[in-house]
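Quick one - inputs below.
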Amino acid sequence: MSERAFHQDREPDPSTDAADEEDEADDAREVTTGAEAAIIALEEAGVDMAFGVQGGAIMPVYDALYDSDIEHITMAHEQGAAHAADAYGIVSGEPGVAMATSGPGATNLVTGIADASMDSDPMIALTGQVATDFVGNDAFQEVDTVGITQPITKNNYFAGDPDTLGADVSEAFALAESGRQGPTLVDLPKDASKAETDVQPVSPETPDTYHPPETADEAVIEAAAETIEDADRPVILSGGGVIKGEASDELRAFARKYDIPVITTMPGLGSFPETDELSLGMAGMHGTGAANLAITNTDLLIGVGTRFDDRLTGGVDSFAPDAEVIHVEIDAAEINKNIYADYPLLGDAERVLEQLEDELTDAPDADEWREQCQTWKDEYPLDYEAPEDEPIKPQHVVERFAEMADDDAIVTTGVGQHQMWACQFWTYTEPRTWVSSNGLGTMGYGVPSAIGAKLAAPDREVVAFDGDGSFLMTMQELSVAVREDLDITYVILNNEAIGMVRQWQDGFYEGRRMASEYQWVPEFDLLAESFGARGFRLEDHDEVEEVIKEAREYDGPAVIDAIIDPGENVYPMVPSGGDNGLFALSEKQLEGL
Amino acid sequence: MSSGELPGPAPEERMRPEGRRNEQGIRIDPEAEATHQPRMAVLSALVEHEPGVLAEVSGLFSRRQFNIESLTVGPTTDDDIARMTIVIEEAEPGIEQAKKQLEKLVPTIAVEELKPEAMRRELALVKVRGEKPDDIQSVAEMYGGQAVDASTNAVTVEITGSKQKIDAAVEAFEQFEVEEVVRTGAAALERGAETMDANGHMSEE
Ligand SMILES: Cc1ncc(C[n+]2csc(CCOP(=O)(O)OP(=O)(O)O)c2C)c(N)n1
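Output:
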């Protein structure tokens, strides 16, 4: 899919006579070394940006970048490079590139690679490695990168042969973006990348053993369609795979045509517009009351591009316990992994939805059910105490920002309470506008991911909601946002605590707040200024709008240190492993569950 | 919310369904207890014969907590392809999951679960105290094995066969005092003319 986009982007050079093929071949960069082959492979794949940090073992590869048109963004820390590349991949749909040296460079990438893996984000990591003669000797800055990253990559490569190194990079790229997307890694020993070779890398192709399914079995489609027609209480659960598979339009059309209410998972935010009457919002631990009641009481759950993560399902015994399940999925291993599928529909989400549509003759007769869903929406609004209250309510900040922001603004976050408020109080209407660490839950994701998102979509507004704790984990990347002059608005919902942990301690550990409250945090507005960004301190409820306005108008990175009510917690809440239908609306209700 | 409470009916006032699922996410009769009993399954996999594949496969099985009974690997007639035989003990959904996860690895070419009647063999070398070599030899013969090494103090016997047969043989040797045992784990092939091709299809040539 992205291959097409790349080639459209790569306009032919008008100075070249297209008829004269020999001339063109002359124009192509000649491969001289393994490193050169790696970079040419990236260029061939259409890469125009990479994120990374230099170092001894990766120096030959960087040296080859010197003559390349690929833009390199030097990050402050390799974790930042991985998250930026990951976010770049989410927003653009094409693999983001992260580069690091051997040893600590590679280990610093690990969190970001694991994060991309859990969220099926397309990404390719290139790591330097000590020379092959030294491998296994505990050489300086040696680590078993291939071994360490095996469980968190779709596939990885030890590229020890200069003649095949370029092909490894091409294949890794193709694999990252095809089928169920995900991260791949190529480990490049220094001697191989320095060695001479003239082998041109082939164009990106997945290996022979890799066959993602395209269309689902017709017999199962027929049976599933019949079940949809007969359903009394159908609901669609739209996951991240809908966005990754570019199936958002098809899903919207499908839901509207058959009048079926839609719930999204957290990675699925934006796959269906939350402004649509059929939308019930997000389900799961901090999902809406309507979504969690619908998912609990449905008799037909149509899950599309979702892996039924435990934060979504709660305890499986009580998850959609009356429902037959249609599971549309590109990865066969997700079928029956967590939730049994009565109708497994293996294939590309967009095409399988088309198949279903071709087969369906009637919409399900579900007027009563839709009314019921509407009643739940009215009964369980996401709410918070009156905004006039001091101190500032975090929900109010998110909600006001959402109202003021561009329609296609991109939201990135750290991990914690602020992330949940960003889910709940921002209104998502478009795919690829939610950039967050869904599956791994990585604090520190916010600052670098906003950089990757902005660079992937320079014309779009980017807002990063962060926690004080999460911000402290990767704030050094602010230096990159300043250096690259990126127009990003960072909003720190500052509760001087690692708030989500504190919420759990209050709810489940009798309020014993061990290590969850900061005795002191920096003044983030001043810190931002010292980095060269604009800093704002927001303490007064009456200034919320004005500060947001000013920060948005500032042309460059701005950081709002929003001092929020430290007592505020996230509700509704399903305790982990609990029953989605019994979500608590307050701490008091939590005790009873 | 610090002090407040979100609006909406309390948990006990909400619409509730009747059903239930078991641990494997399968809908079950709410009245009945339903757990899947584990069974033994033999997976046969063709994988690319390249460094790191064994680590990748064994890593996958341990990380996903599949109960491995044995895992063997060796070359095939094709230099580029190795064959693994993996015996696991899991409930039905676990077996399905193990197979799919294994199929998903990029170096994996094909995976099949072999039928229960498939040929399953393992090799054991049993080192036995050697005071009565003739007696040891006759026990070995009872199990179709043979002494492959003998010194004044020890006899090493080789036995091939099913797991049960080797278990029984080792037990029989206990009367002489078994000093060491090494077992390979199962290698298995489908009976008859059936073979697995590189696409994972079973066919009769
Ligand atoms: C790297 C990492 N370490 C620890 C955790 C555990 N954890 C989950 S949420 C949380 C608190 C986050 O605090 P903050 O970023 O300030 O956000 P808040 O919850 O206060 O909004 C912690 C420590 C994590 N998710 N990631």
